[in-house]
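ok so i was messing around last nite and threw this chain in just to see what happens. nothing serious, just curious
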Amino acid sequence: MARRVFVHIGLPKTGTTYLQTVAWSDREALRRAGLLLPGRERRDHLWASCVVRDDPNVGRRHARAPEAWDVLRAEIAAWDGDALVTHEFFASASREQAARMVAQLAPAEVHVVVTARDFLGLFAASWQESLKNGGATPIEEYGRSESEDPLVIWDWRCLDLGLVLERWGDAVPADRVHVITLPGSDAPRSALWDRFCGVLGIDPDTCSTEGNFPNESMGVVEAETLRRVNATLDGFGTARDRGVWIRSFLADERLVPRRGERYWPPADQVADTRRRATRAVALVRERGFDVVGDLDGLVPVETLPERRLPGSVTEGEVAAAATELVGVLLGDVRRLTQDNRRLRQAARRGGAAPVRARAARFLARVRRR
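result:
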């Protein structure tokens, strides 16, 4: 059985994609260093979070999804070093689900790792992430509740560090709960990886932090445009539809590159983030959890730089962004049609094997877009 298991539960929008990409890119190097990243593929950790949170629809994600948690546990049981399980959706688990997950990893020494950032930036980023996942809720209506449902992600249930620690903080002793705050904007990107590795007990140089780490932000006009597009979509309800077409194809690859203006939520929501952050910081200090970084940095500053409100976006601005987007999409359709025509021509000339190879390349290009 693994000696220690580090369960990284998020929070969402706190550098989790970056940390997971670095770890999975050098998975074998981590293994040689004594840290197991279990699973058949990266998605096993997402699927395992669904199993742990008792998602009745986990099988719809993939035929292999329902067995993902068992796969991770089996690999951990056969390993004699340390292990890492990481996905931000674990943060939404109930108190009972968290305790059960820890018990199922016994007799390993389980550590809970939570990455955190300033609550205002988290709120703004999470609203945008909800749009990338097909949401159409205006920011003025977003984050007005605390769900009781462990399957809900884009809600304060999963975003409020204090609420998350109230559920997860009793699952292991206080000295095994590690709160890692994001470094300041002037710090190198690798600083978060350095802090993460310090908790895991591995040399940061074990993995390369060079490379492309997508998941960038849209500007306020682009976010509002996507929100309105989402409200018109029909039949894009699967995880694959949201991930491939809404997030990657439309948001990350076509709207993010416009580099629009940044934004804040309305004043009452800013005040709510400040209240929640103050409460969470007090909880962390009271419980004596291990802190790596600046805990006070989680509380939004009193004087904020000027930024737009999403509600200020005009019809004309949305129309201009949508018009430009139509032009980009028309070029995409033409290019894909030309690729498909060449594929059919190759099928008539070259036989089955070349067709399969060309088809695979064609599909790969579509998935990247």
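not much to say yet. The longest strand covers residues 109-116.
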